[in-house]
């Protein structure tokens, strides 16, 4: 919602809003753009009769008291997914879908277009794109870059996948995974949503798809518009080769139809980010930019907030933060960190996010922490959209992970985690906070006690 609020304000429209009192990574960005909001939800916040009310699926969605008040007095309402699609209309839409990697990939595209002297509009689901100091922008060029999210529009009523409000000219699919058990019953249902999305691509458009991802590969024969594939597979139109790590850079080659395009260097950690970057290279080539210029701008990209974000260093201990909350993301991130920092002791503090995801993916979580030296698992963060599930807990998850990584401990809360870190961490440690809940709010205290 922050990215959209910034974009709308830059269009010259007055913007305000309401939210809970909890601290969020987006707070500083909203403050920078002087976007003020109320704490809590109350009908009185609608008394000045805004022209439009946009709501998210969180905090009761359409049933939220402010949304219901708006309906009663005749103020138009739109869900966030609908509103994003509305403001993207009349633009050349570059949409990045995928269960994992869509934030980094869409941020890479937006950042690259700016460095290539375009002025794209963009709405990216992060605190900010590093170097741009924002997650949203209303630009003068024809391009609009956005994440295309498969989660449902409103869990309280509208189960339309959010990305179906968009009409891409270029659609990137990074992967397809079972990430939202509260929205989909299985991976097949997720694939069906993505197939529906491919039918929204406009005439003359292109779909860029990861051929290494089995679930994505399975839907290709059901796509009716031109498909360009990428991946490490020899069958990919654009093949990523020779991924290696040197001087704090991820380095790789990209080949097109068995001819080498170039060597590329990115600051983002891990083979998975080399793959994300390859999809960006394909997208920018389709837009007509030269390989040499693409290579230059990608090398400048420093990432986004909460995607292996460097926090600080103290007493020869490094502190990073990451949003990973699904087993696939966790494993890829930790593998990348291990390859980047082979001599560091990696200490992970993982806050599980949602009972439904934890329950459905217990065994997968158990196999996802093998690249860490020490794993701390906390209580499960309770999402506003669900209730606890009897028997599912951080302690249960700890027992599952411990079968694969013996150096796993259950430490339920912030206070006890801080105590543990103050006593058990040492020089040459790399400490990583990880999760989609509120663990980011623990970071100042963690850095203080290191």
Automatic annotation (TrEMBL):
Residues 96-283 form the Mur ligase central domain. InterPro entries: Mur-like_cat_sf, Mur_ligase_C, Mur_ligase_C_dom_sf, Mur_ligase_cen, Mur_ligase_N, MurCDEF_pg_biosynth, UDP-N-AcMur_Ala_ligase_MurC. Its main location: cytoplasm. Keywords: ATP-binding, Cell cycle, Cell division, Cell shape, Cell wall biogenesis/degradation, Cytoplasm, Ligase, Nucleotide-binding, Peptidoglycan synthesis. One of its GO terms (biological process) is regulation of cell shape. GO terms for cellular component: cytoplasm. Residues 306-437 form the Mur ligase C-terminal domain. Pfam families: Mur_ligase, Mur_ligase_C, Mur_ligase_M. It is found in: Cytoplasm. It catalyses: UDP-N-acetyl-alpha-D-muramate + L-alanine + ATP = UDP-N-acetyl-alpha-D-muramoyl-L-alanine + ADP + phosphate + H(+). This is UDP-N-acetylmuramate--L-alanine ligase. It comes from Candidatus Gottesmanbacteria bacterium GW2011_GWA1_34_13.
